[in-house]
Specification:
It is a single chain. The protein has one domain: EAL domain (TIM Barrel, Alpha-Beta Barrel), CATH 3.20.20.450. The protein has an 8-stranded mixed barrel. It is an alpha/beta fold and 278 residues long. It contains 11 helices and 9 strands. α10 links the parallel β8 and β9. It starts with a helix and ends with a helix.
């Protein structure tokens, strides 16, 4: 049966009338895959210990998908990722994004930025043996340097930390793939739930990064202490002002990401950011 037929059959009834699943997107998403309509943009991450920050050179990039819809224009992932997940197309979409982003980052690595990292997002519902196989195979086919790929576990749908995800960690580590807990502080995941997990990174949600109150300080500082003990990296997301940057450094975060440096951008623009390190 064709993908379009599966999509329509799987989303009739209780899914088809949802406000956030417009009929046009339901109809057009299968055709967008592999057609060039899906775009990959990159948001850079910076080393907060570098003295030249906030001017420095990116140490990694996060790949973010956009859909150049022929009628509706550019759509953010919040508009179509839920549809892809409901329709059973998220695995195919994830593979396409990783393949394209991986090939681009490989070119940057070969162009003198060998340690440049790549982060991609993965829903908590996707974790399985098949998912791990797809991630490792696609990364190998893209030619990414071993140890530079990070898979970020998104905060929705809850729960973020699942038994399947935990069981997948050894296989991913064997393949040189790191795992990050995304948007800490935005969902139900607590510090206690992370204690002892064989993850590699935690990303602090913008809602904590941008808060200056004592409770936020205590929560992030406690996370940083645990990360130091466990050997994790801590990334502060949502850095938009110099005050946010100063706060993230004072709390002990290792890396930063946010509009203070750049919004998500195309490969050409990101390449210009990398140029000073050549």
């Amino acid at each position: 049966m064709k993908i379009r037929q599966v999509l329509h059959r799987g989303l009739r009834g209780r899914h088809a009338d949802r406000v956030n699943l417009p009929a046009t997107l339901l109809r057009d998403l299968p055709g967008a895959l592999g057609s060039g309509q899906l775009m990959v943009e990159y948001q850079p991450l910076f080393d907060l210990s570098a003295p030249e920050v906030p001017v420095g050179v990116p140490v990694a990039v996060e790949a973010l998908c956009r859909w150049q819809h022929p009628e509706l224009g550019v759509l953010g992932p919040d508009r179509f990722i839920p549809i892809a997940e409901e329709a059973g197309l998220l695995d195919e979409l994830d593979r396409e994004v990783l393949a394209r982003a991986g090939a681009q980052v490989r070119r940057w690595q070969q162009d003198g930025h060998g340690a440049l990292g790549l982060s991609v997002n993965a829903s908590p519902t996707r974790w399985s043996e098949g998912f791990v196989d797809a991630i490792t195979t696609t990364a190998d086919e893209a030619g990414l340097r071993r140890g530079t790929l990070v898979v970020e576990v998104t905060e929705t749908p809850a729960p973020q930390v699942t038994a399947a995800m935990i069981d997948s960690l050894p296989r991913l580590h064997e393949s040189g793939v790191a795992v990050s807990i995304d948007d800490f502080g935005a969902g139900d995941t607590t510090i206690e739930m992370l204690d002892g997990l064989a993850i590699d990174e935690v990303k602090v949600d913008r809602s904590l990064t941008q808060r200056s109150d004592a409770d936020a300080d205590r929560e992030v500082t406690a996370l940083v202490r645990m990360a130091f003990r466990e050997g994790w990296r801590v990334v502060a997301e949502g850095i938009e002002t110099v005050a946010d940057l100063t706060r993230a450094r004072a709390r002990g975060c290792d890396r930063g990401q946010g509009f203070l440096w750049a919004r998500p951008m195309g490969a050409a623009a990101l390449g210009r950011l990398l140029a000073p390190s050549r």
